[in-house]
Amino acid sequence: MRLWLAVFTTVALTLVSSTLAQAPTVELVGYAELPADTFDEGPVSGEFTGAGGKEAAARFEGQPVQGFSGIQFGEDGSYWLLSDNGFGSKYNSIDYQLRINNLMLNPKTAEGGDATVTLNNAIILSDPDKHIPFYIVNEFTRERILTGFDFDIESFVIADDGTLWIGDEFGPFLLHVDATGKVLEPPFPTPDFGEGKNPEEDFVQSPQNPALMANVPNPGEPSPATLKRSQGFEGMAISPDKTKLYPMLEGTVVGDSEGTVRIYEFDLATKTYTGIVGRYPFEDPANAIGDFAVINDNEFLVIERDGVSGADAITKHVYKIDLSQQDDNGIVQKELVADLLQISDPNDLAPSTQEGVFSFPFVTIEDVLVLDENTILIANDNNYPGTGGRGEEVKDNNEFIWLRLTTPLELARGVGQP
Questions:
Q1: Were 333 and a residue from 194, 212, 325, 369 both cysteine, which residue would form a disulfide, CB within 3.0 to 4.6 Å?
Q2: For residue 275, what are the β-bridge partners?
Q3: DSSP codes of every residue in 132-170
Q4: Which stretches within 49-144 are classed as H helix?
Q5: Cα gap 229→245, rounded to integer Å
Q6: Is 328 exposed, middle or buried (0-12, 13-18, 19+ CB in 10 A)?
């Protein structure tokens, strides 16, 4: 047994070393950061514990601008960044208003720039027309503003008509909102296209799905949940022609091969799921995805990351996948594009760069956007007021990095900066 473990460990380490050795060297060509303690107008927040009880006092005078978990282009050079459910759990985020922030980024580059980020405004999600079929925190208010207790929003895209489609983890659901953040129709549940399942009747559900929370199993009874908590639609892309959504789960559905996650297709014309178009394989089953971005009709970028930060971080990777290249089980082909722990910074653009090498060792890196064939933009989810990326006692800032790729991407028409 010990011999087998030794051989297995040697092989595993060799594979890891081989993967890292093959990682293309990408260059940091822009850097900006938003301080962790950045707040927007709104009610006080952080009044609740992880169990839903009241704290002695609110921790924050306003709404933190943090937890960035999705990025898209805005107008006039700005960017939209989605904040997730707030403070890390359903119950301690009761007073966090779900938002999509409009930010102006002024990166430091070799030509200049001051590495600053400015908040322009924010869209606050709401359901005044009562489309959501279950109780929300602000059920009996006129505006019915949505909170981090109601949904855990983790991904989004902007459709051709200007409306937004948002991926949630609690259901998991797809949400459809207008440009002001108003919910336009009931949340779309996730059909289960797994073996032996009827997608008309069977749905992928997490333990935080409202239907399951309303019917908690008795002690000793198995949970009907088919997905672990907080493993819903972490990533979502839209096709270059803006006709299809590609929501991607963060975790493995019960019954699927361990360490693989589903990539769904959703038709915007009919507003229906058409099936599973591929399955993404993790380097380690304990890993998770961070985001999903379109390159062309078949190719996409995926952030894959482990669950640690700082000096303990091992896997913070960007892969390119090709949906047209799959094995008999639907597992997609993947190619390492960037190791975010080993980034060249010859111009010392980032304050944490050491000897020309910049590292992005945050536990959650959840934003990637293709700017042009040679450049991608990446940002972290800082889990405010989380620490660990830049020091055990240092609150993680929201950092933005522009990376020049070694090999150009083959972009479809309409992909990249407007």
A1: 325
A2: 265
A3: -SS--TTTTSSS-B-BTTT--EEEEEE-TTS-EEEEESS
A4: none
A5: 23
A6: exposed
Burial grade of 157 (CB within 10 A; 0-12, 13-18, 19 or more): buried
Lookup: tokens for 413: 């028409």
Residue 126 phi, psi (nearest 5): -150, 165
Whether the upstream peptide bond of residue 35 has omega within 30° of 0, thus cis, is no
Structure tokens at 397: 């800032």
- The edge-to-edge listing of strands for the beta sheet with 79-83 is 68-73, 79-83, 99-106, 116-124
- pTM of full prediction above 0.70: yes
Query: Position 308: which residue type?
Result: V
Q: Is residue 154 a contact partner of residue 230, using CB atoms and an 8 Å limit?
A: no
- Which two three-digit tokens encode residue 391? 């020091």
Q: Which tokens in the block code for residue 241? A: 């022609």
Question: Strands 203-204, 188-191: parallel, antiparallel or unpaired by DSSP?
Answer: antiparallel
What is the residue-level pLDDT of the chain in tens, covering all 418 positions? Answer: 433 333 333 334 333 433 444 667 899 999 999 999 999 999 999 999 999 999 999 999 999 999 999 999 999 999 999 999 999 999 999 999 999 999 999 999 999 999 999 999 999 999 999 999 999 999 999 999 999 999 999 999 999 999 999 999 999 999 999 999 999 999 999 999 999 999 999 999 999 999 999 887 777 778 899 999 999 999 999 999 999 999 999 999 999 999 999 999 999 999 999 999 999 999 999 999 999 999 999 999 999 999 999 999 999 999 999 999 999 999 999 999 999 999 999 999 999 999 999 999 999 999 999 999 999 999 999 999 999 999 999 999 999 999 999 999 999 999 999 8
Burial, 204: exposed, middle or buried (Cβ in 10 Å; 0-12, 13-18, 19+)? buried
85 vs 99: CA distance, rounded Å? 9
Q: Which helix (H) or strand (E) holds 7?
A: helix 2-21
Residue corresponding to tokens 């938003």: 34
